[in-house]
């Protein structure tokens, strides 16, 4: 008896097909007393199988991994030895072959285990193929029988169903097992289950292929727009003027020219820049210069609302959809139909809502909250963020597919420190607005403009406007002078908030001519011999520079100035100061300078 059992357990190893043992069954060759309880084939088990496999297919990740997980999970619901998903490309050639335990480069190994004639039959007839014994079925060639590992002493059963995208067969889902007479009664259950799973797989494959095609199309459109921009000869470029955007610096002129080009298309735009650089104003300019200018411009701050309210705001809701929904209401997408929708702070939306937004941006269709009716719209989306989305994608905080969808045409706004020549124009405009609203007739003294030109304004244009309004409110005379600014008296709260990122020279009052600066008394700690880093920084000081408050402040100013000039790249700042990257890192830590991220 023991010898017979030992002989029987070696039989499956004679097959040439990849052996993937099931967690739910033993081979038919085992004795009756050792067999496990047959897999349940009730309607409840079908629902459980479909539910679990739907979750696997809905999870983010590579298609190959998802399909391999489906086959692994299928073993818990169907008596099987092997399971294989085969997908074809647009030309009908095998594109992807996945089984349980799939790994990179294993496609060919699974492909050699498939019955080719039987697979061709499934594709040609677009119908399932069921064979209790493949050796006796005409749909299987001798090579197929050999590939499945069937022989005189071991009969093999096979079930295969087509995978469709719409009405086109794009692949097959098949299983095989050692012939078990007791499993014949479950064939109908297994075929129905495999057909439902094949439908789910087909929908998943369709979405993955659409996403891949969409990404390629968006990349092509992005390249086309960039080529169109740079193809225009410089001599033909005319100066672009946009209401509300003030300045004449080279970075601003380049931005305005790019806005004029982008406005001509319907591509999605991602406006990026620091807080206070005027992202909403740029979005309005894109709309005003586009063919949609006479249509609505609708805006929404995504960070200002919780997810449940955000969904209702964007998609609208039906009466009774939730407790306070007393009437039906259109969402922002509907209101912006044929126009432009501006989504500010798009980097702050939750991961679950990102998936909902992706579908609307991709298909331009949605359902109101509490409704099953699909609404189609034609909306150009302009999104904005001051967040580093690339880092967010790397940390899985922002979906990569949504990133590619919104960042078709990225538009980077220059910070105010890179367009300092625009500060006098902006300040004059803000003062003019203040005078008009408050019945004043203030003007700037030359010394006041010098103070503004020296300030770093890490809060950008918004901080400049607040600075002008605050100073004008407290100015005692008809002209705003240097000493009217809070920074000249160490009272600029903004500079405290930004930890000294503003130019600290503007904070120090100018020494009076009648009281020249003198260094008297013994050498203090502040004037003590500097560290190696301080010594190297001191060598960069302009001739005759006075140390008003000691070497530490002066060196800190030089480090900040170098970091500002190099765009806060430490390696570049180190080269400007003649230091090594290690030394610049030490200086940043020593003076408590916070690195600015863009």
TrEMBL record:
Protein's name according to its UniProt entry: Nif-specific regulatory protein
Which is one Pfam family of this protein? Answer: Sigma54_activat
What is this protein's function per UniProt?
A: Required for activation of most nif operons, which are directly involved in nitrogen fixation.
Cite the SUPFAM superfamilies for this sequence: GAF domain-like, P-loop containing nucleoside triphosphate hydrolases
Gene Ontology process terms (BP): nitrogen fixation; phosphorelay signal transduction system
Gene3D superfamilies in alphabetical order: 1.10.8.60, 3.30.450.40, Homeodomain-like (1.10.10.60), P-loop containing nucleotide triphosphate hydrolases (3.40.50.300)
Assembly: Interacts with sigma-54.
Keywords associated with the record: Activator, ATP-binding, DNA-binding, Nitrogen fixation, Nucleotide-binding, Transcription, Transcription regulation, Two-component regulatory system
Say yes or no: keyword ATP-binding present.
yes
Query: What residue ranges carry the coiled-coil annotation?
Result: none
Establish whether keyword DNA-binding is in the entry.
Answer: yes
Q: Which GO molecular function terms does the record list?
A: ATP binding; DNA-binding transcription factor activity; sequence-specific DNA binding
| Sigma-54 factor interaction domain span | 245-473
UniProt-listed InterPro entries: AAA+_ATPase, AAA_lid_NorR, GAF, GAF-like_dom_sf, HTH_Fis, Nif-specific_regulatory_prot, P-loop_NTPase, Sigma_54_int
């Amino acid at each position: 008896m023991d010898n017979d059992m030992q002989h029987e357990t070696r039989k499956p190893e004679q097959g040439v097909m990849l052996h993937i043992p099931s967690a739910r069954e033993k081979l038919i060759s085992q004795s009756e007393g050792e067999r496990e309880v047959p897999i349940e084939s009730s309607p409840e088990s079908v629902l459980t199988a479909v539910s679990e496999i739907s979750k696997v297919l809905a999870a983010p990740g590579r298609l190959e991994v998802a399909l391999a997980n489906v086959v692994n999970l299928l073993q818990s619901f169907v008596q099987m030895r092997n399971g294989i998903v085969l997908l074809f490309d647009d030309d009908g050639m095998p594109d992807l072959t996945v089984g349980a335990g799939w790994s990179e480069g294993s496609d060919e190994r699974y492909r050699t285990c498939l019955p080719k004639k039987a697979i061709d039959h499934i594709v040609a007839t677009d119908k399932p193929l069921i064979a209790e014994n493949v050796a006796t079925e005409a749909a299987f060639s001798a090579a197929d029988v050999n590939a499945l590992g069937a022989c005189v002493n071991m009969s093999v059963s096979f079930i295969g169903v087509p995978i469709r995208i719409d009405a086109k067969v794009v692949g097959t889902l098949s299983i095989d097992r050692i012939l078990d007479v007791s499993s014949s009664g479950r064939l109908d259950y297994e075929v129905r289950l495999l057909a439902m799973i094949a439908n789910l797989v087909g929908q998943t494959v369709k979405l993955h292929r659409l996403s891949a095609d969409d990404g390629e199309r968006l990349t092509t459109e992005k390249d086309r727009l960039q080529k169109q921009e740079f193809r225009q000869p410089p001599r033909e470029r005319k100066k672009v003027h946009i209401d509300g955007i003030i300045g004449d610096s080279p970075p601003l002129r380049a931005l305005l020219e790019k806005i004029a080009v982008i406005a001509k298309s319907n591509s999605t735009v991602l406006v990026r820049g620091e807080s206070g650089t005027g992202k909403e104003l740029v979005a309005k300019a894109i709309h005003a210069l586009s063919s949609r200018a006479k249509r609505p411009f609708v805006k929404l701050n995504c960070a200002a609302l919780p997810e449940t309210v955000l969904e209702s705001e964007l998609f609208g809701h039906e009466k009774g959809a939730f407790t306070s929904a007393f009437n039906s209401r259109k969402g922002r997408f509907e209101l912006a139909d044929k126009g432009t929708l501006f989504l500010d702070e798009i980097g702050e939306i939750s991961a679950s809502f990102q998936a909902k937004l992706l579908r609307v941006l991709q298909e331009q269709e949605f359902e109101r909250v509490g409704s099953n009716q699909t609404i189609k719209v034609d909306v150009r989306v302009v999104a904005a963020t001051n967040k580093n989305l690339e880092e967010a994608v790397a940390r899985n905080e922002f979906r990569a597919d949504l990133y590619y969808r919104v960042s078709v045409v990225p538009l980077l706004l220059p910070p105010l420190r890179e367009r300092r020549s625009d500060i006098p124009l902006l300040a004059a405009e803000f003062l003019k607005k203040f005078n008009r609203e408050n019945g004043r007739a203030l003007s700037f003294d030359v010394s006041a403009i010098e103070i503004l030109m020296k300030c770093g304004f890490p809060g950008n244009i918004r901080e400049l406007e607040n600075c002008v309004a605050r100073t004008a409110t407290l100015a005692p005379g008809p002209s705003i002078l240097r000493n009217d600014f809070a920074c000249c008296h160490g009272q600029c709260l903004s500079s405290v908030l930004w930890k000294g990122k503003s130019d600290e020279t503007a904070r120090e009052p100018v020494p009076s001519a009648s009281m020249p600066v003198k260094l008297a008394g013994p050498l203090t700690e502040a004037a003590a011999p500097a560290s190696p880093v301080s010594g190297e920084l001191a060598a960069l000081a302009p001739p005759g520079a006075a140390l008003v408050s000691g070497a530490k402040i002066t060196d800190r100013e030089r480090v900040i100035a170098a970091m500002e000039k190099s765009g806060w790249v430490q390696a570049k700042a180190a080269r400007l100061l003649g230091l090594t990257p290690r030394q610049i890192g030490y200086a940043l830590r020593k003076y408590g300078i916070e690195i600015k991220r863009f």
